[in-house]
Design goal:
Layout: H1 2-18, H2 30-43, H3 59-78, H4 84-98, H5 105-121, H6 130-136
Helix pairs in contact: 2-3, 3-4, 5-6
């Protein structure tokens, strides 16, 4: 009986530990780099790779949402002990807000590149397919 109780207590302790997300080792200069990206975004929505611009009629709103996304990343980073899950949740939330405004594939690719840069700044090499799915998803019905 003791063995069974010991096993149950051990398993419950392990289950609780498995659900706790470990903190992410974020580079020391991440907040400063995120602030730089945010300031650049306030000026113009441009990707480094293509230097193409989003459609003029959606640019201000997309720009505003990208700045808010960078703010989310700064907030998560500055709060201490950020987790990968926190960044990915912020990514999901922000992509959902941008989806209706990015109607063609080129716009979506630019937004995906922007978020990839944010993820790389905080030390996350992959969005686990989120950015690819966003970039290749069909335009929303208007």
């Amino acid at each position: 009986m003791r063995t069974v109780l010991f096993c149950l207590f051990s398993l419950s302790a392990l289950a609780g530990y498995a659900q706790t997300a470990p903190p992410l080792a974020v580079p020391a200069d991440a907040v400063a780099r995120l602030e730089d990206v945010k300031e650049t975004t306030k000026q113009v929505v441009v990707t480094k790779a293509t230097k193409a611009r989003l459609q003029a009629e959606t640019r201000p709103e997309v720009n505003r949402l990208l700045v808010l996304a960078a703010d989310d990343f700064v907030r998560i980073t500055a709060a201490g002990k950020p987790t990968r899950e926190a960044y990915l949740q912020a990514l999901d939330k922000n992509l959902a807000g941008l989806a209706p405004l990015t109607t063609d594939e080129q716009d979506r690719r630019q937004v995906a590149e922007y978020f990839q840069e944010l993820l790389e700044i905080v030390g996350i090499p992959s969005s686990e397919g989120r950015l690819t799915a966003f970039a290749l998803s069909p335009a929303p019905k208007q």
